[in-house]
Amino acid sequence: MHVTTATLIKELRKLTGSGIVECKKALIEAGNNINLAIDNLRKSGQIIAAKKANRITAEGVIMIEVFNNEKSGAIIELNCESDFVSNEKNFLTFGKNILTTIVTNKNNNFDELKIKFENSRAILINKIGENVNIRRIAILNGLQIGSYLHGKRIGVLVAAENASKESLKHIAMHIAASKPEYITQKDIPLNIIDHENQIQSEIAIKSGKSYEISKKIIAGRINKFMNEISLTGQSFIINPNKTVGDFIKEKNIKITEFIRFEVGEGISKIKTDFVSEVAKLSKQ
């Protein structure tokens, strides 16, 4: 077998835009014949996939499966470029295959999973004509696991103790709707609280109120802020007259952990004004 050099791999990547692993494999199979390697990559769809690799994937689906006698749950976010493709059969099958692999192997090693499904992803990109990205995966374990999917865009897993299925579902629905970041106020990192305290202090100083009044206002606003980002401090969407904390205390439920995925959160979408573009072109 010929030794594949770093120089050849670099050259093939430059010519095709394919990944290091794909280039190395193609060169080995082609006996370091770079033209043959390019042909093989073209035939396998790798070049098409590589050309689309930098295109933004802010649409897609969240998929969930609870397993292990409802003591474990797996969740994935699979992204594509358009909402249309997020409903496409091959795209959804690809996502289900990933989820099945996670559940079967009880393994959520992200790097291993991406390598395992890279060829299938390239074939899918070639077939549907859009970039596809396995963005994130997670497994949640606990004494009880509840879940909730809001359509295909928001998914929640909740780990709890001493909760009925209905209660767990309602709590998961609340998390989907209200986006808490922590379970209780005690779970909020001090740097987050300090940062908010600094902001509120500056606002209070500008208000011109006395020190004592400002101190009370700041304390009230900090408490409100902590309630807004903690699950137990939020008003319960099922019964807004009580907090989630009130509800779980009444039911003697303990929430140990939760995961919330929302399609495209944190991804900057490029907004294109097609009307303006056409108008500009017409003046040229």
Automatic annotation (TrEMBL):
Which Pfam families does the annotation name?
EF_TS
Function description? Associates with the EF-Tu.GDP complex and induces the exchange of GDP to GTP. It remains bound to the aminoacyl-tRNA.EF-Tu.GTP complex up to the GTP hydrolysis stage on the ribosome.
Q: Which domain of life is it from?
A: Bacteria
This chain's protein is named Elongation factor Ts
Compartment(s):
Cytoplasm
Name the protein family: Belongs to the EF-Ts family.
**Per UniProt, what is the name of the gene that codes for the protein in this document?**
tsf
- UniProt GO molecular function: translation elongation factor activity
The residues covered by the Translation elongation factor EFTs/EF1B dimerisation domain are: 73-265
